[in-house]
Design a protein that fits this description.
4-stranded mixed sheet, Immunoglobulin-like, Cadherin_CS, 5 helices, elongated, mainly beta
């Protein structure tokens, strides 16, 4: 009776859910199942004569929670006479664990609660066997028990909660986001999985399409600057939203993105104070306009529209802070102008054409700049001056003058001075009151051609205020240097040299710099003009050539020849110097290359009298000392001791030169007693070379007790003033 009752409730439930369709089909099936059960109970009898299975597809309702097993259906064979000879056997999915069968009647029951979402149907096999023989009375047959769905699962939003963005001021109906819910119930049966969407929170700003879940804007002109985010709650309900359906919800955070719908605005006019000593390009003021937009929509550009300070100041935009930075474009001077006015304009860098009708996206503001006075140092009329002075100017000669003034209104008196760090050797002075620059010591262009000195101007009332200027003083040239050999020549002549052969080409240098260039003249001294060994030829190109007069030079006759060369600079008045050229006799091969010139020594390089006169005389003395030793050993005679009465006469002829060459006048210093031998020997030939000023000398070793012998020999032989030729063997 309870089974019939349940089947009645099931029929009523199904008919209520979907009247006239699936319920009638199911009802007919259930009636077939009931009729099968009634047949086994004797209520009805089958008219079929052949033996066969009698059942249809079985259905069982999920989530049944009754106290007794749930009746599913009945298996029955027409061979079953109801006498207990037929035994029914069930196998397959869930047999004997979920489903049980009465082996006598064939009734099938569900012993456990079923869940369609876990398994929607079960496939089983049925057998009817003879109880005595256990033989099949019907072939094994397969059937299905389908779990019937009920609405036991609510919709779920698997991707929630959602975050969405939409531009502010979007028109009504602009799509924001699409939400999607799922229902685990059977979508093919009834309305348990048919969903309807609705908004529980977020109206009237947004709406949702009931069937698709598309969320759209519901109000126009939503302003981000007023409210920039909204929280929506969307519901999904099954059973097509009807009463009794299950529902699920999700949240949506909607953020309004910015559009450029707000122009920049200056909040005020501005006034700043600026020191007149501020450097050019320095930032002296900052202004900032307000823009309610954000990001690129709030990027600004500043520019100066007009004003009397438009050429003195400039403005740039700080891209990080969106401020306008006012900088100094020209030097400020309080005494010249003490205030400036600017009219500054600000505008959006990017403008949205959709909102141009809202008004101009720019604004202007007035900026007043007040220049503050500071105590400034004196200013020279020219920061850099150039002056010229001759190198032969006398001490105290005026070079030029400078002037400075106090730019402040106090107009303090100025005192001038030279910065001695720039004029360490004190070449110049300046009058502290007049600013006149004068020479303080002799000048030499060849030493310093350009003087770079710094002048200071100090306020008398405030000595901490010091101005500075640079004066470049060029020293012009005068002809005060004689020319000399360009290099120290090492000249040789081969023993087998032929007459007229060039053995040396001479060139000269002069520390002076004449405007039309150098024009050197070369000649021999008057004493050397009749030289029988060598001659000098001026090449007229600032060079000269030394040529041989004859051939057949012999080292044993004379190892070194000395040739005095006079070099004149050709200026007016002209300066000249005598330069001694040493020529050594060498043994050469057939090609003219030197093989040997002396016994392990090389000839003395040619030097001018102006730089080596003293060294030459000392060399001669040392050479003569060696000769004295030999002479004394040979003659074995003793003279009275030498006295140094004439020492002063000897010393006065040893002249020290520290200038650049004195020309022919230098030769007059060598008016000294000529050293010569008393013993006369017949020379091999007459030699017209000049007396050497420097000779190669050998290092002599002697004892202190022989000094008197040396003095006696020198005193005895310093009697003649000149001689023409000296032979060194």
């Amino acid at each position: 009776m309870s089974v019939f009752w349940f089947m009645s409730m099931l029929n009523l439930l199904i008919l209520w859910e979907e009247p006239g369709t699936e319920a009638m089909t199911l009802n007919s099936r259930l009636l077939c199942q009931v009729s099968g059960r009634g047949a086994s109970g004797g209520v009805h009898s089958h008219q079929r004569s052949r033996r066969s299975w009698v059942w249809n597809q079985f259905f069982v309702l999920e989530e049944f929670q009754g106290d007794e097993p749930l009746y599913v259906g009945k298996l029955h064979s027409d061979t079953d006479k109801g006498d207990g000879q037929v035994r029914y056997v069930l196998s397959g999915e869930g047999a004997m664990s979920i489903f049980s069968i009465d082996e006598n009647t064939g009734d099938i029951h569900a012993t456990k609660r079923l869940d369609r979402e876990q398994q929607a149907y079960y496939t089983l096999r049925a057998q009817a066997r003879d109880r005595r023989t256990n033989q099949l009375v019907e072939p094994e047959s397969q059937f299905i028990i389908k779990v019937q769905d009920i609405n036991d699962n609510e919709p779920k939003f698997l991707e929630g909660p959602y975050t969405a963005r939409v531009a502010e001021r979007s028109p009504i109906g602009t799509s924001v986001v699409t939400v999607l819910a799922t229902d685990a119930d059977d979508p093919t049966y009834g309305n348990s999985a048919r969903l309807i969407y609705s908004i529980l929170q977020g109206q009237p700003y947004f709406s949702v399409e009931p069937k698709t879940g598309v969320v759209r804007t519901a109000l126009p002109d939503m302003d981000r600057e007023v409210r920039d985010r909204y929280l929506l709650v969307v519901q999904a309900k099954d059973m097509i939203g009807q009463m009794g359906g299950l529902s699920g919800t999700t949240s949506i955070t909607v953020m309004l993105t910015d559009v450029n719908d707000n122009p920049p605005r200056f909040p005020q006019s501005y006034q700043f104070r600026v020191s007149e000593s501020v450097l050019v390009s320095a930032v002296v003021a900052k202004i900032k306009a307000l823009d309610l937009d954000v990001g690129p929509n709030a990027e600004l550009d500043y520019r100066i529209r007009d004003g009397d300070g438009a050429g003195t100041f400039s403005i740039i935009t700080d891209q990080n802070t969106q401020e306008g930075l006012i900088t100094v474009h020209k030097t400020l001077d309080f005494e010249t102008k003490s205030s400036y006015m600017l009219r500054v304009e600000v505008s959006n860098r990017y403008v949205d054409a959709r909102f141009l009708s809202a008004g101009p996206f720019s604004d202007t503001a007035t900026v007043r700049l007040l220049v503050e006075n500071v105590n400034e140092p004196p200013m020279f009329s020219a920061p850099v001056s150039q002056m010229v002075i001759s190198e032969d100017a006398a001490v105290g000669t005026d070079v030029g003058s400078v002037s400075a003034h106090d730019p402040d209104s106090t107009n303090s008196p100025i005192r001038y001075s030279v910065d001695r760090e720039s004029d360490v050797e004190c070449y110049f002075n300046i009058d502290s009151h007049s600013g006149v620059i004068t020479t303080a010591r002799p000048l030499d262009r060849e030493t310093v051609a350009l003087h770079n000195i710094s002048l200071l101007a100090t306020e008398s009332l405030d000595q901490s205020q010091v101005g500075k200027a640079v004066v470049l003083i060029s020293v012009t040239d005068v002809n005060d240097n004689a020319p000399s050999f360009a290099v120290e020549y090492e000249t040789f002549v081969c023993e087998n040299t032929k007459p007229g052969q060039i053995i040396q080409t001479l060139s000269a240098v002069d520390r002076d710099e004449p405007e039309d260039g150098h024009h050197f003249l070369f000649s021999l001294t008057a004493e050397a003009a009749g030289n029988l060994n060598f001659t000098l030829r001026d090449n007229k190109d600032n060079t000269a050539s030394v040529l041989t007069q004859h051939g057949g030079f012999l080292k044993r006759d004379q190892l070194v020849h000395f040739l005095p060369v006079v070099i004149s600079d050709g200026s007016s008045p002209s300066l000249s110097s005598t330069n001694m050229l040493s020529i050594i006799v060498c043994t050469c091969d057939v090609t003219g290359n030197r093989r040997s010139c002396s016994h392990g020594t090389s000839p003395l390089l040619a030097v001018s009298l102006s730089t080596a006169a003293t060294a030459g005389v000392l060399t001669c003395v040392l050479t003569l000392l060696g000769v004295v030793i030999v002479t004394v050993a040979v003659r074995h005679r003793k003279r009275e001791p030498l006295t140094m009465d004439d020492e002063r006469g000897i010393r006065e002829n040893i002249v020290h030169y520290d200038d650049e060459g004195g020309g022919e006048e230098d030769t007059e210093a060598f008016d000294m007693l000529t050293l010569r031998h008393l013993n006369k020997t017949k020379p091999t030939h007459q030699d017209q070379d000049q007396n050497p000023q420097r000779l190669y000398s050998r290092t002599l070793e002697y004892r202190a007790d022989k000094d008197r012998v040396f003095q006696e020999f020198i005193r005895d032989r310093l009697t003649v003033t000149q001689y023409s030729t000296m032979t060194v063997n």
